[in-house]
Each structure stands twice: as structure tokens, then as C-alpha cells.
Amino acid sequence: MRRRLPDALVIVLALLLTSCSSADPTATDVRMSVQVDGARLGPDAPAFVPREDSAVFVSVRNGGSEAVHASALRLTGDVLGVGVFTHETRLAVSAEPGEQVSRSFSADLDVLGAHATGLVDAEFQLVGVDGRVLAAEEGLVELRGSPLSPHALAGLAVLVLTVLSWLATALTRLRAGPRRRSWREAADFLPAGVATGLLVVITLPVLGLLVPAPPAPLFLGTVLASTALGLTTRPRTTSPT
Fold first, then answer.
1. How many Å apart are CA 88 and CA 76, to the nearest integer?
2. Which of 154, 167, 190, 199 is the least buried, fewest Cβ under 10 Å from its Cβ?
3. H or E segment and range at residue 101
4. Which architecture does CATH list for 25-143?
5. What pTM was computed for the model?
């Protein structure tokens, strides 16, 4: 029984090595670069105005040992990990090993503006004929979309929620009257703090200012700062008559 255990481990390791060596190398050896109206995705977040005739330039380099065949170019966008749009354009590209090919075409990207506005984490994906993603390029893009997009309306809804939360907090404090500083007073500010944290995290990308990555530290910091206001209120004292 003791000898079978090492034998089993050897078999498992052999299977793992075989599966790794037999993996398709083309998916990792294909490189792609994409330009839309002369701008590439990157850390500088180029402005991207959705148009019906956006000029798209795609360059694909096959560094693998087998030919690759692509059928589409997919563009996805998400904000804070939530997908806001997916757009796919037919693109027939074939590249032999060591070959670099380029394609230029016009794409109707006007529909993207109806889904989001502001800073968006975008990714171009080169999709193979079998549906696999052969290569990808990602980065920030400033999408100048509609102010009535779900992305923008979400920011507006959180703004209204934040205002109502702070009004409710103020009314609660007025009705309760002066109290000593305690965690109970801080708890009165917790709903407003949560709403303020959501407002900061959501509206910064909508306004094109910043995409917090990850958003948790900024959200928690805003909640704690807002909640701490409940501990800074000094109780009123009445002077003896």
C-alpha cells in the first residue's frame, strides 16, 4: 500500500506535465494591437467618442508554431467589475506562424454610448473561428456616451440616495437631542456613510476623473470618515442660572 502511493503521485505528475505540454500554444503566442480613430487603449485613457463610422485598425502577429484563424473582434467594457457593454464585429484574419497581418475597417460603435459614459475598463478580444479568445488588449478608455445611459443614471440614483440619507440622518439627530459622544451616535451616520461611499466610487468614473482599483479601500475610507462625524459632535451644556 505504501508503494502504491508514490506510484500514484508519479502518475498524477505525469498527467499534469502532459496536459501542460499539449496545451495549445497559439492562444498565448498571438499578439494584437488595436487603434480606434488613431487612439490605443492605455493608462492615459484616450477619449473615445462613439460614432457610426469609427476607424478601426487591427494588427495581429502570430508568434506560435501553428496558423491562427480569427472570425471576430470583440469589445467589452466594465466598470468596477460590472459589465456595461459587449460589442462584436466580424473580422476575418488568418496568420501563418511568424506572420504579421493588419486590417483596417469602419465599425458602428455608436451603440456603446447608450450603455455607459465616463471612464471604462475596456478590452479588445480577437476571437477565433472556434470561439476561443486568441489575443486581447485592455486598458482604460474615456467613453463620451449619453447622460441617460444606465451607467450615468446609476450615478444619479446614488446621488439622490445620498442626499436623502443625509437628510434623514440630520432629522434623526435633531429629534434625539444632545447626547454624549458614543458609538450609537456614530451608528446614526452609518447609512449616510454607506451612501456617500457608493456615490464616490460610482460617480468618479462617470465624471471621467478616476477608476478606483480596487474600490474597497476608497469605499471603506469614505464610510469610516462619514461615520466618524457622529463622534465629533460635542454635547450641549446649559449654564446654571
1. 9
2. 167
3. strand 100-107
4. Distorted Sandwich (2.70)
5. 0.68
